[in-house]
C-alpha cells in the first residue's frame, strides 16, 4: 500500500511517519499534482480544489471540505519530530504490544467473526490470525484511538508544507474522493497525524485503491464496517503479492509483502508474533 500509520497521542503511537507513509508510497495514486506549496494557504487550497474538480470531485464537496480550513501548526510540529526509526528493540516493543488482554480480546473476536474471517481468508489468501493481529495492533479492533484530527485539515497542512507536497496533495485529493464516492461523510473523515483513518489506519489513497465493500451496502466504510475493514486489509496484502499458505516470518517473501503495510522490520515482526500467539 504504501504507507500504513501513526501516533495516537504524542510519542505513544510509535509508528514513525516514514513507516506510516509506506502504505501510499509507490502506489501511483493518481496523476501528479502541482499546486504551489507555501505562500498563501487559501490560494493553495483553491489550486488543489481546481485539480480535484478536474479529477471528478464536485464543487459542492470541495467547498464543504475546505470551508474554514486553516493550517494546523500542531500537525507540522509533530511531523518535524519524526525520526523514521524505532527507538526500542523488537523485544521491548513487542512486550508493550503483544499483551495478554489484547490476545484474549482478539481470540474472542476470532470466534465471533469465524464465518467472516473464513470467507476473507478463502478469497484473499491472508491468514485470519494475521488480519486479527493487524486489526488489534492498529486500533484495538476499533475500540482504541483511531485519531481525532480532521483528515482534510491535517493533509492540507502537510501538502502546503513543501517537504512532501506532491505526496500529500495526492492524499488530499484522495480524501475528497472518499467523500465524493459517499464512502464516508466529511464528519467521519477523522484520523491521525498523517491523515490515516479507519480501524486499520489507511491513508486516503490506499482507501481508494484497496478498499472493498464487503458488507455489500454500496460503500467502503473503514471506520464502522468490520467486513469492509478486514477485507480491505487483506486486499492490500493480496494486491501487493501475498502468497496464500506460505509462511510470513522474517526472511520470507510474505514478510516483504508486509512491508507495504509498514516498512519497519520491528513492527512487522510484532505483527507476525501476534499472529503466532493466536494460533497457540
Describe the overall structure.
It is built from 14 helices and two strands. It has 280 residues and is mostly helical. It has one domain. It has a two-stranded antiparallel sheet. Helix 2 packs across helix 10, helix 7 packs parallel to helix 12 and helix 9 packs antiparallel against helix 10. The radius of gyration is 18 Å and the shape is globular. The two termini are 29 Å apart. One of its GO terms (molecular function) is peptidoglycan lytic transglycosylase activity. This is Membrane-bound lytic murein transglycosylase B. InterPro entries: Lysozyme-like_dom_sf, MltB-like, MltB_2, SLT_2. Keywords: Signal.
Jot down its keywords.
280 residues, mainly alpha, two-stranded antiparallel ribbon, 1% strand, disordered N terminus, Lysozyme-like_dom_sf, MltB_2, Membrane-bound lytic murein transglycosylase B, SLT_2
